[in-house]
């Protein structure tokens, strides 16, 4: 229907020079072309050449099998691709491009922008399953946990360092009580320790390191000959 339009059996062409050559295809708009089986092209110059493809918009092109291009100048050229938005492009298999100018060029991906024209994905619910996306609240929670572990670890290192700074009992002496201090990555700790010489061959040592995030305890016995 329309000057210069043509349609195959069971197909429909509406508009000047519209062509619906694919089986069960539909072309609507001046110069629209639907050549793929079960394809639909709607809009001036729209092209739907892939099997089961749909192009909707001026100069939209759905050339991959099972592809969909929605929006002026949008292109879905890969197999099983979807491009939504003016100038959007989905070229890799199973890819999706959403938004004006978005580009999906890697297989099995969803793109919301292009290099230099990125977009934020907002109002995302917290992920539950292993393949769900995580939102910033979840990431902040992980960061908080990591920071707490780091604080405790740094304090523990400082406390252990403080314990090592306490001198042991000297030869000829029986008991030594000492204190020590240590610092690591900005975290400080102090320690108190006692060492006892029971004989020339046997001695023992006990100590506790104290920091703002907890305490460490240690003890040991040695026999020498």
Automatic annotation (TrEMBL):
The residues forming the signal peptide are none
Start and end of every Trimeric autotransporter adhesin YadA-like head domain?
20-46, 62-88, 90-114
Where in the cell does this protein reside?
Cell outer membrane; Cell surface
Provide the organism lineage as a comma list: Bacteria, Pseudomonadati, Pseudomonadota, Betaproteobacteria, Burkholderiales
**Region described as Disordered:** 1-52
Instruction: Give the domain of life.
Output: Bacteria
Report the principal subcellular site.
membrane
- Keyword Signal included in the entry's annotation: yes
Annotated protein name in UniProt: Adhesin
Q: Which family does it belong to?
A: Belongs to the autotransporter-2 (AT-2) (TC 1.B.40) family.
